[in-house]
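Aim 2, interim progress: modelling of the 5-phosphoarabinonic acid-bound target.
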Amino acid sequence: MDIRFDFNNMMDTSIGEFGFSERQIDEMESTCSKAVEAVQKRRGTGWLGWMELPYQPAEELSRMKEIASRFQECKDFVVLGIGGSALGTIALKSALLHPWHDLIPEKSRKTPRLHVLDNVDPYWLGTFTDVLDPSSTCVNVISKSGSTAETMSQFLWMRKWLKENLGDSYAEHIVVTTDPVKGALRAMAEEEGFAAFTIPEGVGGRFSVLSPVGLFPASVMGIDVGELLSGAAAADEAAREENPWSNQALMMALLAFLSFNNGRNIWVMMPYVQGLKDVADWFRQLWAESLGKAVNRHGAEVHVGQTPVKALGTTDQHSQVQLYIEGPQDKVIHFIGVEDYGLELEIPSEKTGQDSLDYLGGHTFNELIKAEREATALALAEAGRPNCTHILPSVTPFTLGELLFTFEMATAYSGELYDIDAFDQPGVEAGKVATYALLGRPGYESRRRDIEKATKNRREKFVIDRK
Ligand code: PA5
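Predicted structure of the complex, ligand included:
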């Protein structure tokens, strides 16, 4: 593995009574090896289809590359999707493209501007076409179910806009990523002749970043998807090890599980790399939707799951860290650092005569951000606050693939430790059903009646208007 996981500050040797002892970890070894066995036995089956994504056939990838090269001719590449159909692409964009990619003048930029629309705020959405030229805009609509209200309404709107402006050629500007057979989107793709990709069986939204959901937009943006997959394959190999002491994903799952049992029901992911800020956002969905469950696999009520929080170093040192150090003992802080930022940037050493400034001169921003991360980890440890750190040698498609897959495996192993189904999302589905009912989708009438009944309990007394 190229990435390193340092969990010293989770252990009693570093943080005293609030840390775990080696014995506590040792005692969980057989539980851990059973978790690995259970997950590995099911790899590639049921909802564990995503475990085979690192090994996609070369023909699939070259077809993707071929179609991507056609869409690279667009000036604006627009992804329509939400949740698992959006967050992976956003994370790949932030981590692997030039940080100011979309601001690079068109003549020196090789790939289109990338926009991921994952909301339906009418003002935000409705003004988007003001800045686009339909003749050079391409749309990738992504929905596993092909029926999510937000994505599908966005799609109907953008399809109309393209049709009105381009006539019959509108279909050439659209590419669909959806279920191989089911759903309205698949049917439309076939009827209207859109290019289409398939989200393989057994790949749920939050585990789909390494499927065409994330890989096609990545290919359009010129990201080396082969390297992403090689990194994921390396993480997959490493995650097969049954001993937590030599398996990052398993150790992360175990530390999180033991922490949850100690009342630490918040997991803060805090990269000290601007480009990884959206990895923390992607991780939030992975951790929350997979592990936040009401019942275990035997139907007993458990209500488990840590609330994932995203933070960013150093920005949030000046916003959140006070709470992390002195607030309730209910969190684990998970830092992500990088050894090589890709650029050494010096702080000017010009003397100002101010001692409070002159010490900075001659150092680099690289030293500054590293010192800030280490200082925060140390301050937390001294306050008995558990924290751990993933370090990447540098942010590349390979190391990012490794990191994302390690987190996916940690999530799968956590599911085993909690003894829950980490791959369903009844809460998300409940919200979708309520939306369908409220908007009058056929088949959802009885749910609508229930909602109307429930709203009768609302009291004006519990609403305060400004006089
Ligand atoms: O992880 C999940 O399953 C969800 O977050 C989905 O990705 C999200 O609800 C979008 O669903 P779909 O891709 O079916 O439009």
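Residues 82-85, 143-145, 148, 151, 204-206, 289, 425, 428 surround 5-phosphoarabinonic acid (CB under 6 Å). The longest strand covers residues 331-340.
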